[in-house]
Structure formats: C-alpha cells, structure tokens
Amino acid sequence: MPPVESLLILSTATLAGLTLVGGFAAWGWSGWLRLKTRELEAKPNNTAELPAIGQRIDLADLKERIRKLEAIAAGVDL
Asked: Is the pLDDT of residue 65 over 70?
C-alpha cells in the first residue's frame, strides 16, 4: 500500500481538479443560459403564431407522417 502522504496528495489534487472542472462547467452553463436569454429577447414577438393556413398545412403534414409511421409499424409497404 502506498504511503499515507502520497494518498493525501493524490486525493487533494483529484479534488482540486474536480472542483476546477465543475467550476468551468458551471461558468459555461451560465454563459450559455445568458446567450439563450438574449436570443429569446431579440426575437420579434410577432412571429409567435402562424397564420391559419400555415397551421392547417402543418397539421396535415403531421397527420401524413403519423399515417406513414403507423403503416411502417404494421409492416405495410407504402
């Protein structure tokens, strides 16, 4: 078994390294959240809703995708 001093130094260095990595991860996460907040604030609010025709087209597209997925799950060739 290695000497106690070596284990103490190794564990202290490991703890310091993990603390450093955790600190950088938290700093990066905070910066990423600030960036996303600024992107959301800069986005104009008038594009939040699609016109009625666009919603119907999107709904028809989703229904077609569901129909195809159900056919694939049932083993039917399209």
From this structure: yes
